[in-house]
Amino acid sequence: MTTTRNLLAEQSARFARLDPVIPAQRVAPVGEPVVAALPDGRVVGGVVAFHHHPPGTVSSLWSARYCRELTPLLGSVGAEGLAELLAAARPVLVDGLAAEPDSAVEVIWPSRDAEATRVLLDHGFVPLSVLAIRTTAAPSRPAPVDDRVRVRRGGPSDLTEVLDLAMAELEYSALVGGTVLRPDARDLKAETLRTRLAGDHPVWLAEVDGLVIGLAEGAWSPVAEGSPGSTRLPTGLLGYVNCVSVASGARGLGVGQLLMARAHEEFDTAGARATYLYYNPPNPLSSVFWPRQGYRPLWTIWESRPATGLRHGP
Ligand SMILES: CC(C)(COP(=O)(O)OP(=O)(O)OC[C@H]1O[C@@H](n2cnc3c(N)ncnc32)[C@H](O)[C@@H]1OP(=O)(O)O)[C@@H](O)C(=O)NCCC(=O)NCCS
């Protein structure tokens, strides 16, 4: 008999073969269950979680308002079962969203599963973001940057400059990824950054003659065994890089690289096992920049926006 536990264990073993950095899958996803049978009788499953990101929530800045997240449990069947699962899950995934343009269906899946990539593309999904990881303390090459550029930690008095740079990143990312420029974006960002700048998480600023031209917003991210985060990332102390933004007139001059050299130095010195971040593959700047800084895709966040963009496969 096929059980969720079996599917999870077999899926975990398959993920490990695809990518040794993907952690063991020990936490069963929570949501509405879906089951599908292949013509040869094999059975796959999945669960659908419903997420709402109303006005006033920070997550609404990178999410559609109404999201249905499908977590497939394909066991050892793998991508072969994904098309059947998508067909079986479709009524749940699009139910009630036919007239909702601000909606999405999401699947978060190991980036290296090329066979699943084919199925997801064929069903109208777009790889809007990747969760990328840097696992080795690759030495940062010295940045060929103007030697007047200084990097320092930011604090509460830097809010105005930090907010402008964060908004510039948000506006750029809204052109090339899943970010949504909501009417309350500036207020939401201001509130988050005010807290961030007054707290213990690091914010690095690059400046020239006292003028702030670059921002890297970091965070300490301890991932505990058995926590939801442990299904995606290695456990232990990790460094998280949230927003990196260089003023448009100063891009391509090594400022971003200098900021990340400092961030990595601090994360590595503190014993972070890895550092991770999200970026948008369609972003022509960050998709070049991050691999140069030692990051590679681990999980891809596939989305069909709006939800009704979900297609029947070939
Ligand atoms: C992404 C960003 C932070 C990079 O900062 P930057 O100061 O421009 O980057 P650097 O000059 O340090 O460049 C570092 C590397 O990225 C690559 N790169 C940067 N800008 C590039 C460009 N316009 N075209 C091609 N490659 C580029 C270079 O290959 C460079 O590596 P190299 O010097 O070893 O060749 C900056 O471009 C930016 O703010 N972009 C808009 C907001 C954004 O996309 N933020 C990231 C969201 S995840």
TrEMBL record:
Highest taxon, organism lineage: Bacteria
Segments forming domain N-acetyltransferase: 149-308
InterPro entries: Acyl_CoA_acyltransferase, GNAT_dom
Transmembrane domains' residue ranges: none
The protein, known as: Acetyltransferase (GNAT) family protein
